[in-house]
Design a protein that fits this description.
The protein is mostly helical and 199 residues long. 77% of the residues lie in helices and 0% in strands. It folds into two domains: 75 residues; 110 residues, no CATH class.
Length: 199
């Protein structure tokens, strides 16, 4: 069932990306009527080519993400992470939290090549990149730190609720998660976004 659901998700995402590519190509050489006289054809074509490059990279990222999901589940990645951190924190909820943080960091590192390619190849090729490798590294460190700050308490609370709240633990976990997302949505433009340099 897991493989079937994953295959359906991946196929749907790839199909939608293909549909977007077809639509962009079909309208690449024609400025929409609403913007004629305001946008030059060269700018329309540049925007279309930029979108195509990002969507095509996104298709590779989608396929890679599916392989990573299989690797972490059926491939034993989660079990390996669990065994690797067992000596560091043997009791719950600390052990479970450390496993979650380990997987979180691994996912961030696995996605790094796509972020690098998007920033320093695609964005740079179309003249949109305004960040140096040094600033990219600094922003990456900030994102990782911010992720740890958000994920750690959520993981600890969720694991505690699983242990203490019985069958309906997921309701309490959902309320905590929903409240956290509301606060994060409010805080993001005010406090989080200014910490990062625009790409």
């Amino acid at each position: 069932m897991f493989l079937a659901a994953l295959a359906a998700e991946t196929a749907t995402r790839l199909w939608l990306a293909s549909r977007q590519i077809d639509a962009v190509i079909a309208h690449r050489n024609r400025v929409p009527e609403a913007f004629q006289g305001q946008i030059a054809l060269a700018d329309q074509q540049k925007a279309a080519d930029y979108t195509l490059a990002r969507v095509r990279l996104g298709r590779w990222a989608t396929a890679f993400e599916s392989l990573v999901k299989v690797g972490f589940t059926l491939g034993g990645g989660l079990a390996a992470a669990d065994a690797w951190v067992r000596h560091a924190a043997g009791t719950e909820p600390w052990h479970g939290c450390l496993v979650i943080l380990t997987v979180f960091l691994m996912l961030q590192l696995l996605g790094l090549p796509f972020a690098l390619w998007r920033t320093f190849r695609i964005e740079a090729r179309f003249g949109f990149n305004r960040i140096s490798p040094r600033l990219f590294a600094a922003d990456l460190a900030k994102r990782l730190l911010l992720g740890l700050v958000l994920v750690t308490p959520l993981a600890l609370v969720t694991l505690w609720l699983m242990d203490r709240m019985g069958t309906w633990w997921w309701v309490w976990a959902w309320l905590v998660y929903g409240g956290t997302m509301l606060v994060a949505t409010w805080a993001a433009p005010r406090f989080i976004a200014p910490l990062f340099k625009p790409l």
